[in-house]
Amino acid sequence: MQKPFAQRCIEPDCGSTFELAAPLYVCSRCGGLLDVDWTEPPAVDLDSLRNVWRSRMTSFEAADRSGVWRFRELLPFAADVQIVTLNEGNTPLYNAPRSSEYCGVDSLQLKHQGANPTGSFKDTGMTSAVTQAKVLGARLVACASTGNTAASLAAYAAQAGLLCAILVPEGQVSYAKLAQSLDYGAKVLEIEGNFDSCMRVIRELSDDGSIYLVNSINPFRIEGQKTVAIELAEQLAWQVPDHLVVPGGNLGNSSAFGKGFRELLALGLTTRMPRISVVQAEGASPFAAYVNGQRGEFVDEQHPSTLASAIKIGAPVSWKKALRAVSETEGQVLTVSEQEIADAKAVIGRDGIGCEPASATTVAGIRKLRAEGFIKPGETVVAVLTGHLLKDTDYVNKYYNNSLETEHGQRIQGTFSNPPIQVRGSLDELRSVLSSLG
Ligand SMILES: *Cc1c(COP(=O)(O)O)cnc(C)c1O
Ligand SMILES: [Zn+2]
After folding, report:
1. Which atom of ligand 1 is nearest to the CA of 249?
2. Ligand 1 atom nearest 322 alpha carbon
3. Which of 102, 197, 207, 383 has its CA 20 to 30 A from that of 361?
């Protein structure tokens, strides 16, 4: 049975609605972004809903085991839909004492989305988008990507038996991410230019309906990703943290957290929203420039530059949705430098938690927000780590060997440098190295 959901344009002076099966990515009247919203709120008993969600974790059914589909009462899919899942979600919420101390905050926890099947948060949205592709009878699914969306789509398309094409900027995707897409059998098309060029091309390609586009402009992606907010609230016994801090690239993730927490509040499952703050890399920060009033209107960054390749984006498609999340929760949008990202990543590592550079913008950002007094003593903070350490080991090795340089050739200090030590000699030499530790 179909649930009471529809696609709705987010532009206040439009608000057109479209049925779920309409193969759209933006409003066909005004070009605005679309939300998938319920037309009547689900009639649910809150306690039984919490209990059902929790009890599913002990089931062996794929739809119950998934940390996305476990929350299916809030997803716009019929009860008998054939889902495409790789057991995504249910990711850990870690304590991080060293990161917490580094930031100067009393309570910092790290929600590690790198623990998903393909190593990034993209899986939580890909399971729903590729399921929708099946519902619509798509033959070929496609995306533009800085690497992780591609790896994720390639895996879910393979699992679903769909053809898959991905557009990536030539020479700008980490080997690990590329390797994943190749292994999952996707057709990898390398485009001259950057991510924004890939995005432009693929939006034009998708106009004629021959491909199904699963970038985060697709509102069904956001539906899966919003469940991370539910899962996080559940992990915190339905208490919402004071602050939630996420990296900002194409701005789908921050949009999805806003939507998830908004729906939880509307249902009465929580009593407030966290302040949602977004951190961008200095060299790729059009959203920060806009929100902080340096520019009167939204201006794309023509030459985005950062080693955090997952957020090297100058024309983020979802900025209006992200703006909604930040404004309604009174969060901040800030930037951090390449050096700050690299050092924060190393500190997270010292907690035994590995993430990719883009994810570390969060800890770097929290440190700043605390120093500025935006985060107050005693407040609880959750940072979202978006991708796994092994996504970009080249960066890590260079940092620890003191040879990491920005795209403009500036040396990044290995503040927490930890190079391997060559020991060629005797046991005595080894003993002396070991006794000098700690
Ligand atoms: C995609 C991605 C981001 C950016 O997320 P947006 O939703 O595009 O803002 C950040 N970090 C990692 C590791 C990613 O893969
Ligand atoms: Zn519209």
Report:
1. 9
2. 9
3. 197
The gap from C-alpha 151 to its chain's centroid, in whole angstroms, comes to: 13
pLDDT, tens digit (0-9, with 9 covering 90-100), for 210-254: 999 999 999 999 999 999 999 999 999 999 999 999 999 999 999
Position 423 scores a pLDDT of 87
Ligand 2 centroid, distance to 251 Cα (angstroms): 20
Please report which helix (H) or strand (E) contains residue 204, including its range. helix 195-206
Q: What is the per-residue pLDDT for 42?
A: 86
- pLDDT, one tens digit per residue, over 133-163 is 999 999 999 999 999 999 999 999 999 999 9
To 10 degrees, the CA torsion angle through 91, 97, 103, 105? 90
* Domains in the chain with CATH codes: 93-117+221-400 (3.40.50.1100)
**Cα-atom radius of gyration of the chain, to the nearest Å?**
21
From the CA of 27, the nearest ligand is 2
Q: Is 252 in the pocket of ligand 1 (CB under 6 A)?
A: yes
359 lines ligand 1 (CB under 6 A): yes
Q: How far is the CA of 435 from the centre of ligand 1 (A)?
A: 42
126 CB under 6 A from ligand 1? Answer: no
Ligand nearest to the CA of 126: 1
Asked if the model's pLDDT at residue 1 lies above 70, the reply is no
Q: Is the pLDDT of residue 429 over 80?
A: yes
Given a cut of 90, whether residue 402 has pLDDT beyond it is yes
Cβ 382 vs Cβ 93: under 8 Å: yes
What pLDDT does 265 receive? Answer: 97
- Does residue 348 contact residue 385 with C-beta atoms inside 8 Å? yes
Q: What is the C-alpha separation between 152 and 124, in angstroms, rounded?
A: 9
Terminal CA-CA length for the chain: 62
Give 54: exposed, middle or buried? Use CB within 10 Å, 0-12, 13-18, 19+.
Answer: exposed
